Amino acid sequence: MKIATKFIHAGTEPDPSTGAIMTPIYQTSTYVQEAPGVNKGFEYARSQNPTRKALEEALAVIENGKFGLAFSSGVAATDAVIKLLAPGDEVIAGNDMYGGTFRLFSKIFEKFGIRFLYIDFSHPDQVSKSISDKTKLIWVETPTNPLMNIADIAAIATIAKKAGALLCVDNTFASPYLQNPLDLGADIVMHSSTKYLGGHSDVIQGALIMNDAALREKLYFIQKSCGAVPGPMDCFLVLRGIKTLHVRMQAHCANGEKIAYWLREHAKIGRVYWPGFEDAPGHAIAKKQMRGFGGMISFTLKDESMDKAMKLLSSTKLFSLAESLGGVESLINHPASMTHASIPREERIKNGLSDSLIRLSIGIEDADDLINDLQKAIG
Questions:
Q1: Active-site choice (26, 98, 118, 196)
Q2: Consecutive 10-residue runs of the chain (379 residues): their mean pLDDT?
Q3: Which of 34, 130, 375, 376 has the smallest count of CB within 10 Å of its CB?
């Protein structure tokens, strides 16, 4: 089945009682049982919900996996993965990652005795050098947030399997339309479904997808026991979003490419971070494991003063100054003070995230209008 057909039909069947083509929103907290322990597959909505079940089946299909689990947010999905571990275990993670993930690791789980090592995943040999007998999980973002670094998923998967460690890939920036980490050897794929999967900036949700049945049961137990589950309306919204993911991603990619090259030629722009450039670090790997280069771009001004960056951030009209990404509308973001503010400044600077870095989430508006908006703001 081709990808467009798969995305439209994934996880959805006409409602057997009415023939409704869209999955109903089962707004219920509990289910009547015929006798104690005798039910129709649903007992209590924290454990199961028909709308969520349809979404979880769809998530598995679009990531070429066998099992999907939906959570109340991307951070909740990440939290569930770390809860597979025990005190004394070690996690290898990227030194360029979403600030909320870093905050969860460093402020919540470190105090429970889990150790986190942060390395540059663009060099797989650093993974091999960091592995120990305590390494139980490797956590990868690719492309990374916000510097768009690329990790070789297949190479890291080989290292992880040799070490007996799980590999979880945060696939939020790429989406299943551009990249399928399970096909490259990952054990778990994580999404902030809030972003490209939902696609309309109207839902908060997260997802995990995997192939191993035993791993699915462990994560389902955590999902059910800890209770970070999405409501049925949220599940309905993400199911709706998945149906148009392919057409939206085509527009995001086309606009992203046009704007990335325009920024690179602009006299007042310093460095542009986008993996589609042939001379970009990691381009060859991105071309091998992705179907396109996406609509996320970061850049700096040649004048790297904070005043110049702040003026630009406050001067756009079509690019809205806001956190998040992946919606149909374009957003502009200042990682140092917004999405990555929880990372200590010295760590950000050491890893290349300057105070003046600007991140764009390119929407699906007309690319020329977006370029005109940036041109006026840059001056």
A1: 98
A2: 92 86 95 90 94 97 98 98 98 94 97 97 91 97 96 98 98 98 98 98 98 98 98 98 98 98 97 97 97 97 88 96 97 86 77 85 98 96
A3: 34
Q: Where are the domains of the chain?
A: 3-243, 245-378
Distance (Å, whole) CA 65 – CA 31: 29
CATH 3.40.640.10 fits 3-243, yes or no: yes
Active site residue 46: yes
Q: What gap in Å lies between CA 149 and CA 273, rounded to an integer? A: 8
Q: Domain 245-378 is in which class?
A: alpha beta
Its pTM stands at: 0.95
Contact in structure between 54 and 238 (CB atoms under 8 Å): no
Catalytic-labelled residue, pool 46, 258, 291, 311: 46
The Cα 282–Cα 95 span in angstroms is 16
Residues 6+ apart with CB under 8 A from 359: 145, 146, 296, 297, 298, 325, 332, 333, 334, 335, 339
Active site residue 162: no
Query: CA 323: distance to chain centroid?
Result: 14
DSSP 78-98: HHHHHTT--TT-EEEEESS--
